[in-house]
Amino acid sequence: MSAAVSIIRAKGEGxxxxxxxxxxxxxxxxxxxxxxxxxxxxxxxxxxxxxxxHAHVEEDELLYVLEGETxxxxxxxxxxxxxxxxxxxxxxxxxxxxxxxxTARLLTLLTPASAEAFYRGASExxxxxxxxxxxxxxxxxxxxxxxxxxMKLLGPPPFQASEGVFG
Length: 167
Known about the structure:
single chain, about 170 residues, mainly beta, Jelly Rolls, 7-stranded antiparallel β-sheet, 3-stranded antiparallel β-sheet, 3 helices, 12 strands
């Protein structure tokens, strides 16, 4: 028998976390709920939110753009991904993204769910009306990555618009 449980969440429902890399995460399906199979969260962000170049050691990552537009760096190239588009980075593949629209909402799927420790370690509880443009603390993100071991930070964001943002 699986350790997973049934999950029903409506729009806007789920635990909210202010991610110190920028944005507000809404947990839609956690590791505990899926028996470790996957982690699914919605990420609300504002223009300029970027990730450092990184790779997930044990997880495959799929980004589905619900609203807005992002620039995704994967396999050494930059790709515009708008609403309805997806980007997939298999485990171990360096990648990053930058929000280029005024706001964006992404649905992020990580499988298996072992990366959840990183996201929780780099976040704090957030209210339902938390501002996704809140403060960024890449030092805390770096510490969470080192502590969890699941995320390997490889360098600053590979986008010219974000020079000087990371570390």
